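User: Predict the structure for this protein chain, please.
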Amino acid sequence: MNDFIYYSPTEFVFGRGVEEGVGAKAAARGFKKALLVYGKGSVVRSGLLDRVKASLDAAGVAHVDLAGVRPNPEVASVREGIRMVREQQADLILPVGGGSAIDCAKAVAFGALYDGDVWDFFCGKAKVERALPIFCVLTIPAAGSEASSSCVISNDELHAKRGTNGDAFRPAVAFMNPEITFTLPPFQTAAGVTDMIAHICERWFSGVGPVPVTDNIAAGLLRALIEAAPRVLEDPEDYDARADIMWAGMLAHNDIAGCGRALVQGGRAGGWESHGLEHEMSAFDTSITHGAGLAVIMPAWMRYVWREDPSRFLQFALDVFDIEPIDGSDEAVEDAVTAAIDELQAFFVDMGMPKTMGELGLREEDVDAIVETLRATKGDVFGAFKKISMEDAKAIYLSAFVDPALPALDEDEAEEA
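Assistant: Here is the predicted structure, written as structure tokens:
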């Protein structure tokens, strides 16, 4: 176990109807005016936003709205939120939504206290050291933003999607009511579960060997998600399964699944290769849902890199899927690892996630442009489990256009195709 620093300051208010206590909690902490940050209508149509506003009104906490935040939130919304905070003198940032609304709110929270442009934080010109307080009401379990030190924002002008990290913008309070997720469409539910699994796997394959306590936490979370997801897809109002997914999504990304696995004390475990590869896909085409992109690219990354440390993949196969090699031969090891990756990808597909890049609407001729934005974001080489060059990245992207379940074509067949 490597040295680490674990910090999780968020207060969690979990259960039925907890959103009705937002105002009282805000007033008790002395807040006077909240900037409400939300998306394009579901929180309005469901009545959730009205309940949150009624709670604020009853507690005497004023509020103003930053509405219309899109999936893959764009920096223009962040800049508008910063302007509103300064003009309205809001002292609390209150996103009501999923990871997109929360990440937009986080960027507003630290951008409002910065004299320069907020994009400076996403291109390495500035480091987050302080932020306005954040409460959040979670509606889509997926990104884990309700407790994480991560914030990802898109810049359409630059065709870029970049993240920054900082403990200063971890939410102070997260209100988590599983009932709110009953009406989530199956696709969003599945994309969210995929994102959670990716958060855990990024830490599992961090370039560090076994860390038994952390590994057991991670494997337990993965098994819980794999067990709960089919239940909610069959019965969207299965409260216990929804609760398991909502809580697991937070634990997947608040760093507990990476304790002792970082290469540097105080750093985050893992090289986040799959996330890095996917971010450029959904920056290239902002209609690509992050979780759906991960369902395609993470198995492709796994197939490309597993030989760097087969033992780590064998542990994953055993702890998550009860798969182990029949003997110690290279062939048996490859069969076990491949079977585990196949199982993971089959789980994604069974939930309704795509399997290939083509299903996302991408074309092989798009890959060069995607690789160039990846280079601009990550440099010539990135990663922890295996250093990924831009040539490696291109190979991974191209491999993800091919369904691994289909037999490979020989040269003559390929030419005919």
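The chain is about 45% helix and 10% strand.
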